[in-house]
Amino acid sequence: MTDVLLAVGTRKGLFLGRRRAGGWRVSGPHFPAQAVYSLAIDTRGPRPRLLAGADSAHWGPSVFHSDDLGETWQEPARPAIRYPEDTGASLERVWQLHPAGPAEPEVVYAGTEPGGLFRSEDRGESFELVRALWEHPSRERWVPGGGGLAVHTVVTDPRDAAAVTVAVSAAGVFRSRDGGAGWEPSNKGVKAVFLPDQHPEFGQCVHKIARDPADPDRLYLQNHWGVYRSDDAGAHWTDIGGGLPSDFGFAVAAHPRRGDVAYVFPITADIDRVPADHRCRVFRTADAGASWEPLSAGLPEEDHYGTVLRDALAVDDADPAGVYFGNRNGEVYASADDGDSWQQLASHLPDVLCVRAAALA
Questions:
Q1: CA 148, CA 91: separation in Å to the nearest integer?
Q2: CA 236 to chain centre
Q3: How many CB atoms lie within 10 A of CB 108?
Q4: Longest alpha-carbon distance in the chain
Q5: Of 144, 226, 168, nearest to 192 (Cα)?
Q6: List of long-range contacts for 29-35, beta carbons under 8 Å, 24+ apart
Q7: Adjacency order of strands within the sheet including 150-157
Q8: Cα of 355 vs its chain's centroid, Å
Q9: Cα→Cα distances 235→193, 197, 206, 260, Å
């Protein structure tokens, strides 16, 4: 059985799971009493590096890293992420930590609140603000979403290090094709059902984006109402939410190797925001959104109310792929067979905010 590392960020600390031949073992919490909103497992170097965006109510947010699978953690002497004085802004939260592609093995991106993108060239130990996005002409008209104004998703292109896509709550999708020097809104086809003009250039409330592994031009998007697919790297989007019990949700993930395969967790909204039909089910498409199937073998059968947040659904790169999710009930579930069957790994944790997993050599 493949050795897998699972990282679960919660409202009050980080929990780590390890799957070996004898099964799963979960430990923690690391960073007790700190909210862990962002995680990354960077496997590009000679040994994995874990990155955690932890938020202390006393000391504020910071980025920590570990090179020994979470046994010990280091925090830079100076804050890893700091807004320049001339911006008049201060870091409120690190929402995303994203290792770039193989062409840039030292580069890590961070998405933050208030609506900033930062770039590191030392594997996440220090970051610089990407000025062009911060100073985008549309920025003064960006409106915070329910969770604030945040760059919460970063997607890079494995073929082209200069191609970067971000999602901003609630400004929509923005793309750069020159390494962050210039940015353009990329929301054509995505509806903003809560606005008088439902097809604005920007202003959509995008919840998450995932890239297809077989066709990097194919992206999947979970919106505030609507599940979409793009076949041209985000230039245009097509609604693929038909067949789901609800096209509202927060999370979307793509299979690590199989093209056209993606996962969502439908939520009933806007009022109660609980699992659709009060059932704990992940939905999978094997044909790029033409159809969807519920995956529930091993999941609770009774009425269920555990909401899965935007970064709390993840896949590893094992074969077959592991699929994982955590919810606001403090439960964590894992599948070792592409989502066909599930087991509960943990319960009664604090609110699960983010989940990341990776196979270890």
A1: 12
A2: 21
A3: 27
A4: 56
A5: 226
A6: 30/70, 30/73, 31/56, 31/64, 31/73, 33/57, 35/9, 35/10, 35/11, 35/353
A7: 150-157, 160-169, 172-176, 184-185
A8: 8
A9: 20, 19, 15, 18
Name the nearest CA neighbour of 246 among 264, 263, 229, 220.
264
Instruction: Decide: 45 and 102 in contact? Cβ < 8 Å.
Output: no
Structural tokens at position 223: 């919106």
Q: Which residues pair with residue 357 across a beta bridge?
A: 6
CA 305/CA 23 separation, integer angstroms: 28
Pairing of the two strands 219-223 and 282-285: unpaired
Can you tell me the distance from the alpha carbon of 230 to that of 221, in angstroms, rounded to the nearest whole number?
8
Q: Exposed/middle/buried for 7, CB within 10 Å: 0-12, 13-18, 19+?
A: buried
pLDDT tens, N- to C-terminus, the chain (361 residues): 789 999 999 999 999 999 988 789 999 999 999 999 999 999 998 899 999 999 988 889 999 999 999 999 999 989 999 999 999 999 999 999 999 999 999 999 999 999 999 999 999 999 999 999 999 999 999 999 888 999 999 999 999 999 999 999 999 999 999 999 999 999 999 999 888 999 999 999 999 999 999 999 999 999 999 999 999 999 999 999 999 999 999 999 999 999 999 999 999 988 889 999 999 999 999 999 999 999 999 999 999 999 999 999 999 999 999 999 999 999 999 999 999 999 999 999 999 999 999 999 7
- Tell how far CA 144 is from the center of its chain: 18
